[in-house]
Structure formats: structure tokens, C-alpha cells
Amino acid sequence: MRPMMRPIPMIWIAIVIACLAGCGKASAPAREAAYATVSVFFATDRNQTGKTNPGEMFGADRANLTYGTCEVSVPRDHRMGELESPSIWRLEFREDPAKHVVLLRAAVASKDRFFADVAERVRRSQAGSAFVFVHGYNVTFEDAARRTAQITYDLGFDGAPTFYSWPSRGATPAYTVDEQNIEWAQANLRNFLEDFFTRSDAEHVYLIAHSMGNRALTRAVASLLADKPALRRRLSEVILTAPDIDAEVFRRDIAPALTAAGRPVTLYASSADKALIASRKVHGYARAGDSGNGLVVVPGIETVDATQVDTSLLGHSYFAETRSVLSDMFYLIRDNKRADQRFGLRPVDAQAGRYWEFKQ
């Protein structure tokens, strides 16, 4: 005769359930540890779509300024300069925060809440610093958020990383539409920068622009600092990467206005930039981000020729995708070192003046 099984006391059932629940919770940090979450701030004059997916919250139409924050994943095994994305060659068909740089969340905030949060982040940083990144042509809101987080992570930036997203269509054929929209956004960007300088509490503000974004940033900051000279002391550096601006217009009009404020300016250029080669063909004139014989070298601006380290397919996003350039920006921002103090550069004396190139 088989012995009767004694009923299991409820306390033991409760203990088993608690243990199982605890085990489930214990596994969560392991998943979380597979990626870092980078929080970045944003201001945008794109329209709100009403969609809840963070990558689709903002469209490509013009609108009033909106402020907020984004959370972006960066894999723990992230390679410096990589903007990891799903690849069909690796049979990856969905975004995975443990493998890819993913826009996880985007939240809109009031203007007052936004600047209070930025100021709080600035106060927690070692140097009281912040940067504002203005993206270029053919970039969506999601693209801009992911790129800003990647730059923040790769630079080890502990201040308030912020991006300004103007209504680029995010489509290759829409180049001329983007040209109209970046011109339209210039006044909004100027107003935003004035607020940022006065309300972020940042003692060290770095302004970074890429490609077509340089058109709005250079004019906006030159105008702002001419009208509000008291703000100049807060500007630590203007960093112009692959500027898609007419080179002669830059030399004649923009550079003098930009350098009149007496603040440091660094320009990265490359002759391997296929996007700027195409822009030169479209416009008929060299771009300020070209190098070679037309390299822009003007007083008050430190020009760095990145041609020799540019290994990307299009050669246009080298500022964020090349270890040498990112390392150079790291010392520029962290230590405020000038070009002749940064160990990865060597000077080149040309007829137009001195510029720098990367050591091989």
C-alpha cells in the first residue's frame, strides 16, 4: 500500500513562489547589463505625428519648437564609431538593444521643465558642460537621436548632450527640400541657442554641426554672439564637420562673422567625402568641407584634414565613425586642447596658412 502524501503547507508554497519570482527578477539585470542607456535632450521644429513609437513621433514638416528627452541603447560590446543597426547579412531583422543602438523612448517636456532638467544635468557634470549637435541632410529625428547618443557614449561626455533636429525629410532625393528647411530653421535655432546659453547654466557649451546643419549653426551663432556679446564666455568651441556650404561664401561672409566673437572654431574637412563631391557637382562650386587644393584655411579657424583617416563608404560621417576623429574631438572637448597640442595631429604649412592633418 502506497503511503498517503501529506499536504504541502501553504508557507512552503509561498516560499517556493517567492524564490521563483526572485529568480525571475535576478535575471533582469543580466539582460539590462547587455546595454547602456544614454539619455539625451532634444529640441525640434518638426511636426508631432501623434504616433507613440518613439522613432515616429516626429515627422518632416515644419512646426513650432518642441522640447524633450530621449533614451537610447548602446550595446556593451559597442565598437567606437559604430552606429550598430540590424543587418540582413547577419540575419538580423529586428532591433535588439543588446546588439544595436536603438531609440527606446522619447518624451516631450514643457520648455521650463526641459531647461530645468538640462541645468540639473549640467550641475552634475564635472566641468559644467553641455553640447548641442545639429545634424545634416537626409536625417530623421530617430537618426539624430541615435547619432547623438553614440557620440555621447564614445566621447564619455558627462554633461548635457543635446541635439537640435530640424525638419530634414530623411530621404536622399529630397536634397533641395532640405536646403529650404535648413534655411527656414535658422531663426528657430538662433532663438533656441540664446535660451540654451542663458538657461542651461552651462559654463562650457560646445556647438557641433554636420554637413548641411552647418548652414544654420554658423549663421545663427554668429548673429547671436554679435547681438549678445555677454554670452560669448560660455561658448567653449564651435566644431564644424563636413560643412556643406559654398567655400567662397564661407571664406568671405561666414568665417569673419563667426571668428569676430573671438571663440575657438575647428573645421574638419575631407577630399574623400563623396556626399560633398556630389554637392559640388550640383552647385557648381567647392564646399567648405572639401580638402585638397580647395581646403579652407582662414585666420581664427583651425582646419583639420581628415582625408587620410576616412574609411567609411560615403566618407561623409567620419566625424562620428572614425576613431581618430572621435579621439581628436575627445581631447578637444575634455581638455580644450588646441590643434598644436593634440598628439594625433601634425601641422602642414601651405600658402594659405597652417592647417593640420592626422598622423599615419
UniProtKB/TrEMBL annotation:
Entries under Pfam families matching the protein: DUF900
Signal peptide boundaries: 1-28
rRNA-binding listed as a keyword: no
Transmembrane spans: none
Keyword set, alphabetical order: Signal
Matching PROSITE patterns: PROKAR_LIPOPROTEIN (PS51257)
SUPFAM superfamilies: alpha/beta-Hydrolases
Domain of life: Bacteria
Protein name: Alpha/beta hydrolase
Organism, as annotated: Sterolibacterium denitrificans
